[in-house]
From TrEMBL:
The keyword DNA-binding does not apply. Residues 1-17 form the signal peptide. The gene is GFRA2. GO terms for molecular function: glial cell-derived neurotrophic factor receptor activity. Residues 230-259 are annotated as: Disordered. Coiled coil: none annotated. It comes from the Eukaryota. Pfam families: GDNF. This is GDNF family receptor alpha-2. It is found in: Cell membrane. The lineage of its organism: Eukaryota, Metazoa, Chordata, Craniata, Vertebrata. It is a lipid-anchor; GPI-anchor. Keywords: Cell membrane, Disulfide bond, Glycoprotein, GPI-anchor, Lipoprotein, Membrane, Receptor, Signal.
Length: 331
């Protein structure tokens, strides 16, 4: 008992942390307790822990395929308010950081006997449509952007964290590389040995995880409770296009629009009459005269369409004119 207490004291003194403060500030432990208070989170977490810890044989520590499936179910079906707290909890000491690293049971889901080449691992991931899609989401939402305050596209921490969590449970599963409480470094289980002339591409791919300022800032911000958009976004305005103005055809060509034609002709005739000009035999005035004599019923302001109305309307008008002429001849 004395030896155990001495070891604990040495552990906390070695890390430079106050035992009382460290016990109270283990946010990863608090996250695990919060998960156990939620039925769905507790059930699915217990499921993947049981599966990923089940030894198959002395040479096979677990069924990795089943472990990955259980992890995918946990992160897909449990709300992020629980899963993110367990994955991205902030730590001040080694015990907390180790609990954070152990969240996904890395001995089964992450680590292997040997590290494959990262490009080979990426190739395996791309053969699975879902893994390929998750990897593409990660590159899109976590790529380092030097035009934003947070180094994330559109200053969106949540999109990056969601893309990272979405990759857990696949061959490209990432995790913390060590139990450092301060230096956050995550990576898939791979390296760039044996890349040949593709080494530069391999190193670039690996740095998207290990030296990604967007991902690192997003994890730190969530753990510190500052995972908000630091730069307010104004409303996005779409470019307003100038309305297209259709050229209005000239009067003689616009014969398909009966209403427009009637109005234009009446306006033209009115202006000629108001100015007291003598009508000539031009096409426009001839049309005007025709419309006025056929489209306006005498004694009213009603305008009718040409060739409409009773068929006896035109003979009546002709008889009236003939009567007037006969009267003048008689006089």
């Amino acid at each position: 008992m004395i030896l155990a207490n001495a070891f604990c004291l040495f552990f906390f003194l070695g890390t430079g942390a106050d035992p009382v403060v460290s016990a109270k500030s283990n946010h990863c432990l608090d996250a695990a307790k919060a998960c156990n208070l939620n039925d769905n989170c507790k059930k699915l977490r217990s499921s993947y822990i049981s599966i990923c810890n089940r030894e198959i044989s002395p040479t096979e520590r677990c069924n990795r395929r089943k472990c990955h499936k259980a992890l995918r179910q946990f992160f897909d079906r449990v709300p992020s308010e629980f899963t993110y707290r367990m994955l991205f909890c902030s730590c001040q000491d080694l015990a907390c950081a180790e609990r954070r690293r152990q969240t996904i049971l890395p001995s089964c889901s992450y680590e292997d006997k040997e590290k494959p080449n990262c490009l080979d691992l990426r190739g395996v991931c791309r053969t699975d449509h879902l893994c390929r899609s998750r990897l593409a989401d990660f590159h899109a939402n976590c790529r380092a952007s030097y035009h934003t305050v947070t180094s994330c596209p559109a200053d969106n921490y949540q999109a990056c964290l969601g893309s990272y969590a979405g990759m857990i449970g696949f061959d490209m599963t990432p995790n913390y590389v060590d139990s450092s409480p301060t230096g956050i470094v995550v990576s898939p289980w791979c390296n760039c040995r044996g890349s040949g002339n593709m080494e530069e591409e391999c190193e670039k791919f690996l740095r998207d995880f290990t030296e990604n300022p967007c991902l690192r800032n997003a994890i730190q911000a969530f753990g510190n409770g500052t995972d908000v958009n630091v730069s307010p976004k104004g409303p996005s305005f779409q470019a307003t296009q100038t309305p297209r103005v259709e050229k209005t055809p000239s009067l003689p060509d616009d014969l398909s629009d009966s209403t427009g034609l009637g109005t234009s002709v009446i306006t033209t005739c009115t202006s000629v009459q108001e100015q007291g000009l003598k009508a000539n035999n031009s096409k426009e005035l001839s049309m005007c005269f025709t419309e006025l004599t056929t489209n306006i019923i005498p004694g009213s302001n009603k305008v009718i369409k040409p060739n409409s109305g009773p068929s006896r309307a035109r003979p009546s008008a002709a008889l009236t004119v003939l009567s007037v002429l006969m009267l003048k001849l008689a006089l």
